[in-house]
Structure formats: C-alpha cells, structure tokens
Amino acid sequence: MFLRMRAGSPAEFGLGLEKEAASVSIDMGVLLRRWRILFPDLTNCISLCQKQQQGCRFYHEKQKRMLLSQHFLSMNLREDSVISQESKRGEMTCKSQRLMLLGGLICPASPGCYHYMPYTVRAMEKLIKVIDREMQIIGGQKVNMPTLCSAKLWKASGRWELMSKELLRLADRHGQEYCLGPTHEEAITDLIASQGCLSYRQLPLLLYQVTRKFRDEPKPRFGLLRGREFYMKDMYTFDASEEAALHTYALVCNAYCNIFNNLGLRIMKVQAATGSIGGTMSHEFQLPADIGEDQLMMCTNCDFSANMEMINSDQRHCPVCKGKLVETKGIEVGHTFFLGTKYSSVFNATLHTSQGKLAPAEMGCYGLGVTRILAASIEVLSTEDAIRWPSLIAPYQVCFIPPKRGSKEEKGAALLEALYDSVAEAVPHLKDEIVLDDRTHLTIGKRLKDANKLGYPYVIIGGKKALDDHSLFEVWNQNTGETLFLTREAIVDLLSEV
Ligand SMILES: [Zn+2]
C-alpha cells in the first residue's frame, strides 16, 4: 500500500498516501456532517442552494470580516521551546528560521521538512504568481511532472551514480527503482523525445513547473533555506542552434532579474560552476546576506562577479578589468545552466532545423528556489524581532487593531470596524488582504507585537484620537517605519495605491 523509502539517515517515511486513501473512502454524508461542524455557514449555504436551486448565495451574504482569531496560527509558541526543539535535532538556526517559527508560519515535521502554515502558503502562492507572470511574458508554458522519477532515466544520464547520497531513492512493490525528483532534466528530455521531432517553427520551446523537490541533505539547516523537501520552479528550454539557445538563456536571465526587481530584492548574478547538472555555462542568482553559504568575489570597478569556486583562491584582481576583487557572502536563490546537447543526445530529443536537417535540441535549464526565496527575503529584509516581506508577497497587506475591551477607548472599536468595511468596499483588490485583529482581550501593544511577527506592510490602530472630532486613526507603514494619523478618507486613498 505504501511506497517506503530509506533516506540517508535511518529514519523511514511513508509517502502521504494515507490521507488521500482515507478521504476517498468517506461517504458524502459523513463529509457533510463533518463540514457542518467546521463550516456552519457553508452547510447553511448548501441547504440554501438545495432549497432554491438557483446558485450559491454564500458569497452574497453580508460582508464578512476576516477575523484574526479564526486564523490557524500558533502564535503562542514560546521562543525558547521552539528554538530548543530545533537545536535538539542538531539544526543550526538563523533569523528567518527563528522568525518564521515564532510567528507560527512554519512548523517542524522532521529534519529539513516543515509544515507550511496558511500565512506561508499565501505568501508562496503570491510569489508563484509573480514568477508565472515573468515566465509567461517570455513564452514559458507551465507543465507538471511526476515527483517519482524512474531510475532508468537517471541511469541513462549517469546521474543515478553521480548524485550518490543526495538522491532520495525508493522501490515500488515490483522492485522498480525510483528517486524523488530533485530536478527534472531527464524527465523533460524524455518527454520531448516521446513527442516525436519538434519543428523549428515551435521554437524556442520553454517549459516550466513549480513543484516539490527533494534532496537528502546531510545536515538540513536554516529552516526553509536548506531543507530536504522544498518548492522549486524549474524551466527547461529547447532550441535548434547554440546561438538561438544562448539568446533564450539571456532572455530567462533577464526575466529572473525582473522577478527580483519586482520583489524589491537586490540580486547579484554571478558566474558559477556547472556541478552535477552539467553544461558549459552557468550563473547563480545570489542575495547578499551574512549567513549566505556561498563565497562570492565581486569587482569594485566593473560588473564582474563570480562564485569563489570559479576563481583561484589567491586571485585578488578582476579577470575583466584588473580592478580589485572584494569578498561577500550570498544565499543562492536561482541557478541557470546552458546545457547544450548533454541530455538531448542521451535521450534522443531531436528537432527539424530550418534547413530540413535533424539535430539534437540545444537545451538550457533554470531553477528558482521558491521556498528559499521566501526565507531569504525574510532573512535580508527583517529586523531581529519583526518580519518584513517584499510587499508584493506579504500574506496580508493590512491589519486593523481595535482598542482593548473594557478600555477607555473601547468606543473606537465600532469606528475602526466601519473603517475596515469602507476599505473592503472602496478598495476591492484589498478585500481579501485585510485582517481584523479581534482578540480584544489583549492590549493594543501586545497585538502590535504579534503584527510584527507576521509582517503586515500596514497596521491601522483605533486609539484615543479615533474618538476626537476629526476621528484620526494611527497608520503604521511597517516597511518605512513611518507612523501617520489619518482620517478615514485619507486611509482609503493611501490604501488604493497599495
Ligand atoms: Zn572588473
């Protein structure tokens, strides 16, 4: 029933089949009864639909507010217990890991594997949208390939041996061997070969996916920065000539720069080694950070920069302009490879050139660490006790904090709720991006602290001044550190720009 595997460590895993197997065997009646407990409104809606038979009314009900108290968040994690849990496993910790654990954004499952909690999933889905957009602008088409990769393909490319312990290997009940895909050069090239010859008219062909990848890290560490299970965007490109393939390579690198620009992250594109992927040219996209595990050399005079592994250790001058080289550290968030015909010649992925000849495809492959970008951006943008996300991918954009129940300012709560409703109505694109922290048994200060743990770009507080004639609300711009007192109208204007 289960596909079992052995990792490098003695721990054993069952692939998550149990949940699916259980859910298919549940009959609808049981499911509905369960839903009725979990989602009373939804089941009301179902009976309403059954009665009226005219489509669902659920979403037309009175405007609902997004209440923080209803979110699945473990905000009561205590710092020491979280950190000791991780360090017991021998994992090193860093700022992004600590902040993500403290905010209840991730929850440890086994070494190098985390549950992604709802806020993290929201951020990740937004990040994938940003990536999708840039990949599709350059003609990328999204596919989705199996995680179980046949050993046959990996043996053909020679990587079954080459990757040794990094591959998570397993066998099915028939004794067929597989690995859990860390990357898909073999699979995609075999797919292309199986489709018969491509025509030059279809080129360049750019295929990509965003899926879970696996690597048996000897020492998983730094939370989502170096796990054993992670999300990656991987793109594979096919061209008829080396010249065309290099043009495509430049196109994808440019799209990567756009992605990081859109996120407001300073990126370094450095020359890099090709490693086990192979090919003849490679670049890494690095976010400069103290905890970065890559040593980089950067010219102080021109654009040249390279991973230390690319240059002689005693080299202190730029190979391009002889300027001085300085050392810095980076987190690798993307990696591009010009592969040539390394894989296409093995798997017989051929195409018809414009001269009517048959030729092996000239390929490139391009990775972006999706979950690693989430953690790395937190690493470089956050302070020691407050998470900052690139605004574009913050899980929610605005948090409203009404006064504490029973306090002198309590009457301000209704004004703040009215402000919440105005924003939801006047700024439709923010309707699902705003949260009301209704835990009014807590002080404003305590909830503001929690807001810092979650990283809303804006926090709006209904304090004393909300009760004045001018009714001013306190607006914190978390990214600039600015605090403003604004009227309802001014806040709607401000948030319209978000
Ligand atoms: Zn230089």
Write the layout of secondary structure elements.
Blueprint: E1 4-6, E2 12-14, H1 18-25, H2 28-38, H3 40-52, H4 79-88, H5 95-102, E3 106-110, E4 113-116, H6 118-137, E5 141-142, E6 148-150, H7 151-157, H8 159-162, E7 168-171, E8 177-180, H9 185-194, E9 198-199, E10 205-214, E11 229-239, H10 242-263, E12 268-271, E13 281-288, E14 294-299, E15 305-307, E16 325-340, H11 344-347, E17 350-352, E18 358-360, E19 362-369, H12 370-381, E20 398-401, H13 412-426, E21 434-436, H14 444-454, E22 458-461, E23 473-477, E24 482-486, H15 488-496
Parallel strand pairs: 5-10, 9-17, 20-21, 20-22
Antiparallel strand pairs: 1-2, 3-4, 6-8, 7-8, 10-11, 11-19, 12-13, 13-16, 14-15, 14-16, 16-19, 17-18, 22-23, 23-24
Helix pairs in contact: 2-3, 5-12, 6-10, 13-15
Bound molecules: zinc ion (ZN).
The site of zinc ion (ZN) has 8 residues, from loops.
